[in-house]
Amino acid sequence: MTGRSPSLGPAFLRGIPAAKQKTLMELSHEVTFASGHRIFHEGGKADRFWVLRSGRVALDLHVPGRRAADVELLESEDLLGWSWLFAPYVWHLGARALTEVHADEFDAEAVRALCAGDSELGQAVAMAVAAVIGHRLVAARTRLLDLFAPYGSGERG
């Protein structure tokens, strides 16, 4: 792990003790995706996840008869992929690299096994992933309101 950070991005695993982060990092390896590379497809098998080191990734949603619609932009230190944690382990969105991307890639099955054997780590990972999902739900809601809500809609105080 020469030249690698000893801890994961603070946006993802802020609450995990450093020793546990180190254990988790031992399950990772560095990967690079070229700009334009399709990292995963909506509906595909979610058997890995990434913590972005650099670059930008668009999360997108399949729209029949049209180009996939971008729903969120991820950047350095963001978690790419959460569907790996929940059965049936299928991607709910797609992802493509907008720029060259450098990331730490994790094997989902190995991380789930590690978490099953270490309840403190398992709870911390589950809470971290839940926080990411919550943030993404709020972002998706905001994007939908930007796209579809009439100007000035909503209740007034």
UniProtKB/TrEMBL annotation:
It comes from the Bacteria. This is Cyclic nucleotide-binding domain-containing protein. PROSITE patterns: CNMP_BINDING_3. It holds the Pfam family cNMP_binding. InterPro entries: cNMP-bd_dom, cNMP-bd_dom_sf, RmlC-like_jellyroll. Residues 12-81 form the Cyclic nucleotide-binding domain. It comes from Streptantibioticus ferralitis.
